[in-house]
Amino acid sequence: MFDENGINYWCSPTASFSGYGLLQYKVVRAMLDMKVNLKPINPAVYIQDFKACPEWYKSWMNNDYTNKPVDIYNKILGIQYPTQLNCVKGQTLIGYTMFESERPPSIVIDCLKRVPYLVVPCKQNVEAFRNAGLTQPIFKVHLGNDQSQYHYLDRDWDITEENPFTFLHMGATNWRKGHDVAIKAFKHVFSPDNSKVRLVLKISKQYTPQWQINSMNTADKRIILLKDHLSDSEMLNLYEAAHCSVAPTRGDAWNLLAFQALATGMPSITTNYCGPVEYQHLSYPLNYNMEYCDQKVFGEDWGYYGEPDFEHLCELMKFAYENPGKCRVKGIEASNEIKEKFTWNHTAQKILDVINQIS
To answer: Among 311, 319, 230, 250, which Cα is nearest to 283's?
Structure first.
């Protein structure tokens, strides 16, 4: 059995609405439930104002953290953006991080060179970091699902005008998430007089400039834009009302929102590149082409991304709409496998296995 004594968790500042924020407190919660002696070693004040952060997480940090210099510790686990992991010092720092393209910028690689051990969620991340010159051990550990929240939902598959087939696209409205492709494909496949289908766009208002929100407004009343933060119960209701997740991303280290949709029994059309490759057998994998990315970050380019195949996306959306029964079966299969193999407890245990291996 793993000896958990001496494991310390670097409580780093991050936005609790973000994927990193969710990953942080889901992994911590799973480890605490597993009775791991996990202690926070950074001041808790960093996240006190984040409304989406669970109260138990704030309480745990307030009650248990120590302000001793972090470099005196062994077995430090940090979950954070690559450029923030270099803030931690320790001989046994394990940094769980990720990236979404073939060429991480030099500032990212320079920061990660100072992290002795890396954990990433997908094979593509391992390869991208290796190709960029990182030589330290890199371990692959998948993200998980909260079964107490995102479990199988027996949604209504009887498609009518009152219960239209609903495609659901989720995420920040940046170029990488592919909302533009989802909207374009929806309009191309479904004629304006088809009232038995709709597209719901759930965006993160906190990270979306107003001009981008304005650009997504459309005269097509079948395309619905949801901007406000949703509670856990509201998110569950959103999943239950939808029939197929559509995620034509250009690069995603996992795409947790689409993964959660799968857990509820909703099939997902997901670009078969980067993170979603790890669960492509559970979804409807979308073809892509490698194209050069002109989105400048840190003054550099990100190399190549996986541009979703527009024609293939149209075919998959048409197939899903015309075959709700097959979608239902696909969703049940995905939900069952996630329940058995992809919970946050599975993720936490794999991270513990990594710590045990290097200790």
So the answer is: 319
